[in-house]
Amino acid sequence: MSYEMVCGLETHVELATKTKIFCSCTTEFGGEPNTHCCPVCTGMPGTLPKLNRAVVEYAVTAGLATHCEINPDAKMDRKNYVYPDLPKAYQISQYDQPLCRNGWVELSGGKKIRLTRIHIEEDAGKLVHERGNTFIDYNRSGVPLIEIVSEPDIRSAAEAIEYLEKLQTILRYIGVSDCKMQEGSLRCDVNISVRPEGSIGLGTRTEIKNMNSFSHIMRAMEYETGRQIDLLESGEAVAQETRRYDEKTGYTEGMRGKEDADDYRYFREPDLVAIRVDKAALKEIRSRMPEDPQLRLARFKRDYGLPEDTARRLAERRKIADYFEAAAKGRKDPRAAANCILGPIFARLSTDAEKDEFHINVPPENLNALLKLLDEGKIRSSQMKATLEKMLDTGKPASAFLSEKDLAGVSEDDLRKICEQAAAANPDAVRDYLGGKEKALKAVLGAVMKATRGRANPQETEKILAEMLQKGKPVELT
Amino acid sequence: MGKYGTIARLHARLEKKEISCTELTKAYLGAIGKENGGLNAYVKVTPEIALDTAAKVDAKLAAGESLSPLEGIPMTLKDNISTKGVETTCCSKMLRGYIPVYDAAVWKALKAQNAVLLGKTNMDEFAMGSSCETSCFGGAKNPRDRSRVAGGSSGGAAAAVSAGLAAYALGSDTGGSIRQPASFCGVVGFKPTYGAVSRYGLIAYASSFDQIGPIAPSVEDAALVYDAISAYDPMDSTCSGSREPVCSALGNGVRGKRIGVAKEFFDGVRPDVAKALADAADVFRALGAQIVEFSLPPVKYCVPVYYILACAEASSNLGRYDGIRYGYRTEHYADRNDMVCKTRSEGFGAEVKRRILLGTYVLSAGYYDAYYKKAQSLRGAIVRSFDAAFRKCDVILAPTVPTTAFPEHYAAKDPVETYLTDICTVPANIAGLPGISVPCGRGGDGMPVGMQLIGPKFSEAALLCAANQYELAARETATGATGTGVGL
């Protein structure tokens, strides 16, 4: 019998707010242990949470970007469980009134992965095992998270990865998270079951907790699917349980069964008031949202005449898309700006992470100014490229590398003189040209450009040469 | 009113330099030294802090500066109100040695006014109890009769004020913990509207019920303190502060006001207590108020609703005491689980454990709907019934407690019987209403009886005015306490 995998993901994403969800401590990653904390995020007796408005705005932004309905009347709840990294012995989360519901993320083939909900909650601290002892670092305690819960719509590990990549793109695009898996700002619980191909019902699922790399997720899903199929094939049942993925072996192993599952004793957080997202607030958040990346891609193709691949590479990262639009603004040929980014600039960003960061010391205005010189015919393409490299090396504007003389151009009178000299020096070419070989003019043009060290405007020069030769005036043919 | 003068009078004497703040503070510290051994009202005395502040106040006076109303007035805080640098234990073995790193909002406000902190007062462990006897330091005695309890949970605060060991005290009231001991000890105890006073720094028992308020010798004093502590606090999302200052409203009369009497508050009330309340109603009639009788049936659900919801919140609030970060930790343990288990088993007393277990139970899967959810919906019904009642009357008059002060060890005998004595105080907590207990005569045993007035949310001004008018008309001279207090 052949089986199919049925999978849903619970994705935890750290929000990129400056401060924590219930206090004003920084959310910055790293830092000496227990230096980014205060009485509130360490749950000292008597302290009270105060909900950070930005967390709600970020989560609503994420909801809107994933086509969710926004709950106008949400609330916070307590999820009670005991673990040393959770200093209050409860996590403030959302249970039955999440902020966002019923959204979707579209995969490249057009398949939609439905989202059940997105809710906000606080992160816990971190246990550090060192020198034979266990220590607790509460720097991460109270860092805001959103949990994005998908419907069991995923049918393969590849779909799971594509879904996560799409989520990453969207969340980075709208600026609510950097989604750095290596720093734990995107983590995943994988709910997985198998069923005979073509059947409708759901098999018993297992949950693989706390996955933080795509390759691990891929391997874990493949292993777990195989394990479940083996069980069913040999007539055994899959037990509903929580499992752990072992990075070394690539296997999953049981952590706890259904009967040992925590009873979180959810109840409304009495220390916080209701969260009201009214129409005006929603409108305000919507107005601040960047353009949808899919729509932007279409616009790049349509308005800038970019080919699909070029448009996609520019549009998939918001910083790069913004940079491109600023650099191309008002320029004759937007493709020149695109080529600068995808060529010389990308050459300096070797990893995806560097492209994500897009730390470029040439502001887009400076690239725009450089391209303007090209537009105006003051420099040639090769000169532009060489100058851009120097700008990227130093961060200085184009004017630092192009002298007055470089940019001054050549006066018409001078140009005429030079043209005359060039024509005289290339009688064969002139003859060929007058004999009907249009292309022969290029040799004369080349001589003019050489004589002017590229400062002459090629279009203008060509025009002058053509006129001059047609009239046949100053050229003595021998 | 107190036997040694109101806060206003102490303030005037300080400003007129009839007495220095240091002399006043020393007088209180002396009285505490003499009386506290017998009363056990204070669990910690802070003479250095008190005298430091007094010196500051004296320096201001010497410089000819005037004082704010509570400046230089010796006072005390219940031991669940966080004081930076001063041990705050909730009278639990679990928090012995715990020194907060920050000040509660109310203490921050009073400290800024140079309130003179004499010490921290005794209470039932984590504010769970009606007798002060669940304190790990032993109970506070009733200054009116030391064979009786001071009440609880703010027993130490009420005993200290009653015995003249502080000009006023701050307590906390979750199900009557300010009003009940005030009633037992013959002083005024005021629980403001939920959200009128910041809870930031109040070590939580039941977050949706807890409210800080004053215990004082008189309504006027309570009003002065209330005005000083009720303010919007950005650190407490549930706190909006007071709507208006109340002191200026104390002189308004009660003529024409409708005083509501709901018979459910009088079910099972001891006849001598009921008689004292009937006399109090007569005083209001004499003042020109109108007595309106009606029925408030949901009152009978209040005790179970309160114990289900308060214990549920407590089970969550007290989860953090695990011996890892602060407070008590067991000495011998095998691993972390064992450590947390033993720490909690040894650190908490019987009443706290009972409420944690009860609260855990009512929130558990399978029981949640039958208990927690049902109690929540009844809470809504109780709120609505009070809304309806306040269309018929301006203030509700009720006993504070159906009896006078319990004899020692009474509460420990039958917890449920003791819970039932909270019948008159818990409704105000469930509905978030302001309630005040004012002494109103004596019971057959010679012990003080408390009259409770309950008003609509944020009606502090009208409520304290009615209480003040009553008090002025029926002033019970506060003699009879066995403490000698401060003679000035």
Please tell me about this protein's structure:
The complex is a heterodimer of chains A (478) and B (488). With 478 residues, chain A is α+β, with helices and mostly antiparallel strands. Chain A folds into 3 domains: 3-281, no CATH class; 291-407, no CATH class; 410-471, Arc Repressor Mutant, subunit A, CATH 1.10.10.410. Chain A is built from 16 helices and 16 strands. In chain A, the strands form 4 sheets. A 9-stranded mixed sheet of chain A has the order 2-6-7-10-1-11-12-13-14. In chain A, strands 5-4-15 form a 3-stranded antiparallel sheet, with no helix packed on it. In chain A, β13 and β14 (252-257) form a beta hairpin. The radius of gyration of chain A is 31 Å and the shape is elongated. The mean pLDDT of chain A is 91. By secondary structure, chain B is α/β, with parallel strands linked by helices. Chain B has a domain at 7-252: Amidase signature (AS) enzymes. Chain B is 39% helix and 14% strand. In chain B, β2 (74-78), α4 and β3 (116-121) form a beta-alpha-beta unit. Residues 476-480 of chain B have low confidence and may be disordered. At the A-B interface, loops of A face α9 of B.
Task: Please give the structural blueprint.
The complex is a heterodimer of chains A (478) and B (488).
Chain A: E1 3-14, H1 53-65, E2 69-70, E3 73-74, E4 77-80, E5 90-93, E6 100-106, E7 112-122, E8 126-130, E9 133-137, E10 144-150, H2 157-173, E11 186-196, E12 206-211, H3 214-233, E13 241-245, E14 252-257, E15 267-268, E16 275-276, H4 279-288, H5 293-304, H6 308-315, H7 318-328, H8 334-347, H9 352-357, H10 364-375, H11 381-394, H12 404-408, H13 412-425, H14 427-434, H15 441-451, H16 458-471
Parallel strand pairs in A: 12-13
Antiparallel strand pairs in A: 1-10, 1-11, 2-6, 3-16, 4-5, 4-15, 6-7, 7-10, 8-9, 11-12, 13-14
Helix pairs in contact in A: 2-3, 5-6, 7-8, 7-10, 10-11, 13-15, 13-16, 15-16
Chain B: H1 7-15, H2 21-39, E1 42-45, H3 47-62, E2 74-78, H4 105-112, E3 116-121, E4 141-142, E5 145-149, H5 155-162, E6 168-173, H6 179-185, E7 188-191, E8 211-216, H7 219-229, E9 258-262, H8 271-286, E10 290-294, H9 302-317, H10 336-347, H11 350-363, H12 369-392, E11 395-399, H13 410-413, H14 415-420, H15 426-431, E12 435-442, E13 448-454, H16 460-473
Parallel strand pairs in B: 2-3, 2-6, 9-10, 9-11
Antiparallel strand pairs in B: 1-3, 4-5, 6-8, 7-8, 7-12, 11-13, 12-13
